[in-house]
Amino acid sequence: MHEAGYEIGNLDATLILQRPKLSPFKEAIRANLCELLGADPAAVNLKAKTHEKVDSLGENRSIAAHTVVLLMKK
Predict the structure, then answer these.
(1) What is d(CA 63, CA 74) in angstroms, rounded to the nearest whole number?
(2) Alpha-carbon distance 46 to 19, whole Å?
């Protein structure tokens, strides 16, 4: 991304899982994402939610991640 002349304008990630609860880890995960991607912390948003015990996500058999990234030319 950086070699191609782009940088992160905004990153919005949602993690969907029943357990473990991510509240205690959200800032550490966000900081790691920023470091790995070389992104400004103000441009990275991380949310965690449950799937209300519906399907494999809610039954704690799987997890999902939905991410949208806006890349901007430097």
Answers:
(1) 34
(2) 16
Helix H, strand E, coil C: the string for 33-71 is HHHHHCCCHHHEEEEEECCCCCHHHHCCCCCEEEEEEEE
Nearest to 70 by CA among 48, 44, 47: 44
State the number of CA atoms in the 13 A half-sphere of 71 facing the CB. Answer: 8
Which portions of the chain are predicted below pLDDT 50?
Answer: none
Supply the pTM of this predicted model: 0.82
User: How many of the other CB atoms lie within 10 Å of CB of 7?
Assistant: 16
- Identify the pLDDT of residue 37: 94
DSSP label of 16: E
User: What does each C-alpha distance from 18 to 11, 14, 44, 67 come to in angstroms?
Assistant: 23, 13, 23, 18
